[in-house]
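Lay summary. Proteins are chains of building blocks that fold into shapes, and those shapes determine what they do. In this project we predict the shape from the chain. Here is one chain we studied, written as its sequence of building blocks.
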Amino acid sequence: MTAIVGVRYLVTSGGFAWLTRLRHPGLYAGQDGQMKKEIGWSLASAAIYGVPAGVVAWGWQQHGWTRIYTDVAAWPLWWLPVSVFLYLFAHDTWFYWTHRWMHRPRPFRIAHAVHHASRPPTAWAAMSFHPVEALTGAVVIPTLVFLIPIHAAALGLVLAIMTVMGVTNHMGWELFPRWIVDGRAGRWLITASHHQRHHREYRCNYGLYFRFWDRLCGTDRGLGTFDHGAAAGRGVARSGASGAA
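And here is the predicted shape, written in a compact code that computers can read:
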């Protein structure tokens, strides 16, 4: 399971990093050292995420301990989207409150500072966590499968959404069209524009999937912006310096 989590991270983050190079050349200029650290921390996090995931897989397949099911008829069809939403909302709730806690001085210094050392974050930063933070994130979905029934395919969808949003929210540019980000959906869904502001200002925009808790608790400060021009300038300057040398 550790290998699966690690490969999933490398493929997804690598794919979006490659897409970034195509869409915004030079955006990650001068960040090679940072990206190496992001990959190192992320692979360490993959090892931590793999342990509870392995326990769940073993408990489900060997002992039937979990509430994961494979027969679509076992629950009504309407339960499929409901279960996906419940998992995402429960995960988002856990993430919001633990994330806010990690921004208190001591937890931040001990653990969360690793993630915020990415300035600005790249597509490789999605799982760049201190082991303490990785542990808090690794137990959520494995705990839910013992509590809330979910079809195996629906669980796969939850994990796919978690992976894709974790990467795209950190890659430094907005993947989704403006009519989504600035429209009704964008008022409740978190995209890169929303999370970018968290990485700039720290004390706001703590959510993972939804803006519900941020809006309810008064920590939502709206959408952030991306300084693509400055990044491109760094890339040109770096190329010029190399040529002069």
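What the prediction tells us: The CA atoms of residues 1 and 57 lie 9 Å apart.
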